Amino acid sequence: MEDLQDWIRAVEQTWIVRYPKQTLATFGITNIAYYVVTEPIYREIDQGSHEGVVRKGRVIAERPTIVTPTYAMNLEGFRPEAYEYLKQISLNMGPHHPGILYKYRNEPENFEIVKGDPSEIAHKIADDLEEKDEGLSAVMVGVDEWWDVALLKFIYEFTSNSATSNLQEFSSRGLLSPQKNFGGAPKAAIERIEKLFREAATGDSRDKLKSELDRWGLFEHYESRFLSLYRQG
To answer: In terms of DSSP bridges, do strands 178-179 and 137-143 run parallel, antiparallel, or are they unpaired?
Structure first.
């Protein structure tokens, strides 16, 4: 319970000083440089210290993937409450209501101790990035022992701000359109399956294709074609 309260306090004490100038790419990978500035833990002991910890790294956002409640319920790794939530979305909005799945990975690079107040340090970094016209860089202030909470808060807000434009771009290309001959799965899903079939035909992992077909509930539709991959050798 104490950890939860500490986590909540960390969120409340975190703020984003600078957002990237661009939104997440709809059809590509987005590579964002981040700077998390915190007050060092030892500041609680040495009140006369005026230093900040600057952690630098990169958040890599993979190309967004179109999903539906039915698809998401076939993904592993969520808690039971999450699947109940997906069931409610499926009931309220339909099993094939399209959404976007974002995948990120964090690549920490280094950290350094810098003289000054964390807020002042963060604003100076942000000003330097503005002068260099760094469009894909973010700066935030957080709590030292929970610095990754600051990063998660940024990812959540940045994703929320990008989702609308990403959906509009998918929609403008017809990729959200349900395909009646494929159980209502969106066009993007069928295109992805076709891509996986081409890769599997050249010897790439067929397990990946099988998993994708199962998640969309389309294995029976493609069963003969899938099995023919094994007859080809």
So the answer is: unpaired
pLDDT tens figures, 171-185: 999 999 999 999 899
Quick one: which H or E segment has residue 38?
strand 30-39
Q: What is the C-alpha R_g of the chain?
A: 22
> In the prediction, which pLDDT does 1 show?
45
Q: Taking 90 as the threshold, does the pLDDT of residue 211 lie above it?
A: yes
Q: How far apart are CA 82 and CA 34, in angstroms?
A: 29
Please tell me the number of Cα atoms within 13 Å of 170 on its side-chain side: 28
Nearest to 143 by CA among 17, 25, 15: 15
Q: Which amino acid is at 100?
A: I
CA triple 16-42-48, angle to 5 deg = 95
Q: Which two tokens stand for residue 141?
A: 């202030």
Would you list the DSSP string of 155-199? Answer: HHHHHHHHHHHHHHHHHHTTTT-EEGGGTTEEHHHHHHHHHHHHH
What is the structure's pLDDT at 126? 97
Reading phi first (left if > 0) and then psi (alpha if -120 to 50, else beta), residue 173 is in: alpha
Q: Find the range with the poorest average confidence among 37-41, 202-206, 225-229.
A: 202-206
Other beta carbons within 10 Å of 192: 18
Res 2: pLDDT? 53
